[in-house]
Amino acid sequence: xxxxxxRKQLNILLVLLILGVGFATTYGAAASGQKPRGDTSLDRRHxxxxxxxxxxxxxxxxxxxxxxxxxxENAWTxxxxxxxxxxxxxxxxxxxxxxxxxxxxYTESTGKHARTIMTNDGSFGVLDSxxxxxxxxxxxxxYTTGGVTLEFTETIERIKAERYRWYGAISQDGTVLGxxxxxxxxx
Length: 187
Hints:
By secondary structure, the protein is mainly beta. About 10% of the residues lie in helices and about 55% in strands. The chain is built from one helix and eleven strands, in the order H-E-E-E-E-E-E-E-E-E-E-E. A ten-stranded antiparallel beta barrel has the order 1-2-3-4-5-6-8-9-10-11. Strand 10 and strand 11 (about 175-185) form a beta hairpin. The N and C termini lie far apart (about 40 Å).
């Protein structure tokens, strides 16, 4: 039973890490497949398209840090309305890698971004953002796992065109349950 609880806590932390991974950005990326609709100057999802190699750390509720690695492939879907982010954990600590699909939308009239997240362990999340402020984007929302809904916040910072940093935390009732810090590089 304790092993299942620990696995679930680690999966929560991994999801948070993946959230950051899933939205790695770059200015010069060429889109493949479907093209986005509308004005992309404020949207910038087109910068996400492609394959990314990610590595960093995650910190469990008891403070233990561990390395984390993943590969994500981002492409347009649903007639260019949504960016689909497909992430697969590399070098997992459990027998099965963590897999996540995310859908990232943008509403031009409001300038708001929204993300829906679904995972191979049945967890899901919903996040929103007011968009980019220079080279920083902040996301807030919830993540539900095992019937428990948690608060989630994430910040994405552009380091340079082919490299971004993501860091964030998951919490419950104001208590931080885990943190992550991740760098993703375009392959």
